[in-house]
# Entry
Amino acid sequence: MKNHYQKRSGLTVMLRLIGLVKPLVGFMFLAIFMGLIGHLCASFITIFGGFAVANLLGIDATFTLTTIFISVGVFALVRGLLRYAEQACNHFIAFKLLALIRDKVFQALRRLAPAKLEGKDKGDLISVITSDIELLEVFYAHTISPIAIAFLFTCILCVFIGSFHPVLGGIALAAYITVGVIVPLVTSKLSGDDGIRFRTKSGNLAAFVLDSLRGLSETLQYGQGEKRLGSMNDQTDALSQDEERMKRTSGRNQAFTNTIILIFDLVMLFTSATMYQNGQVEFMGVLIPTIALMSSFGPVVALAALGSTLQNTFAAGNRVLDILEETPAVEEVYGKEGVIFDGASIKDVTFSYGGTASDEEKILDNISVEIPRGSVVGIVGRSGSGKSTLLKLLMRFWKVQEGEVAISGTSVDEINTANLRDMESFVTQETHLFHDSIRNNLRIAKLDATEEEIIAACKKASVHDFIMSLPQGYDTPVGELGDTLSGGERQRIGLARAFLHDAPLMLLDEPTSNLDSLNEAVILKSLREEKKDKTVVLVSHRQSTMRIVDKVYSVEHGRMS
# Structure
């Protein structure tokens, strides 16, 4: 399933991203102030050079040569120091905000998981979390303060040039607006959706590569390597063509901007010269405004360059905002009174993943299951009949459309999320192992678990002897996604996690599907022994697994049979 991203205007994305600057607004104002003074110093180095030329020509230039040379030296020194300080401040803001955004994104993913993430490409999500967020550094370090600096700088220079004659100030204003506003807007318009297409294709390629790496053994086994590689090359070529087109557009935009600047420089020179001939301004009214305009396009040129580069940045920001603003399928619950486990129930539940209860989309239809405390309840049925969905509803991964799922007589919608998770241990059909040691993979279930507790849990899951046979025992690292272990070994580690979590309600989805009969018998024995302290819901299609249950519910096509 492909990810579909909401399309926002560049202005909307910019305003949303700027809103994240609030925690560091003081540093932002400092960066703007230093950048403004630095650019003014850079321009007035050239402007004071004009005063020096006038002085040498014997024209009243207001300043003496000594004053001019000292001022130029001070301007150069201050410009260098402030430029460094401004960039340091901007990058401090950028990297602080990137850390903040990453934190917000991971919080959002936690809220969205697992319901809203089941259909998303994991490679594309990785692209958003890494490269898209990293690209926002360009926005925070090289966009926000340059825009503010360009606006303030334009106001000051227009007043300065306009002090020689209002018409000259008007020409300067027209030049700054054309280069700093009109050119970026036209550029952005001409670029169209190139940026969002490029980021989306980049995410799709990342997903394809990740999928190819995970399925490498199957690809080799069935001789599909050439076909897979060809598809990857096609996507890479398409991405390269998009990037080449964006680079060409950027180059044309830069050439166009430089042409506009040259035209306005000539307009300023000819206009001021004509006014000098007509006696409207003095010679200084020709020299200084022309030099001032020629030396002052730096801040607005930075904005002109943003027209094309911001397309990529806004596309990345758009994808990040999609995650931050995505509405979870189930909101976390806080502030309710704590609930102590005393049995569970599923009453007249009708459920559809589409969010409606229409007959075409129903996964469960008027299902009822009683789960008394201290019992082992079995749920059997064919693949796709809705067995696993029942466990997900007990975990409140999804909300039911009709009926009620309750723990201790309280609807799961009214139980604090943390409280609910503490009462339940959920073992899925596919156990996920992190690229870490076996011990740390187990401790996910209980961070402060003692060595004795870890060993006891592993013995119940019939995996302790296997772990001890490994060269490094519990410190043995498992590969990415646990691919150094067999399916049965991963499954037993998943069960050990559930035992270690020590929750009163254990939800087990096909917990012995990858195990041989001997290991299955050991685990079923452990579950039977846990019965006095635990309540177990056991989903399986194996009849042998149902030997320990007190009651069996059979689900067929979403209905009880």
Observations:
- Strands lie at 344-351, 364-371, 376-380, 402-407, 410-411, 424-427, 505-509, 535-539, 551-556, 559-560.
- The mean pLDDT is 85.
- The first helix runs from residue 10 to 19.
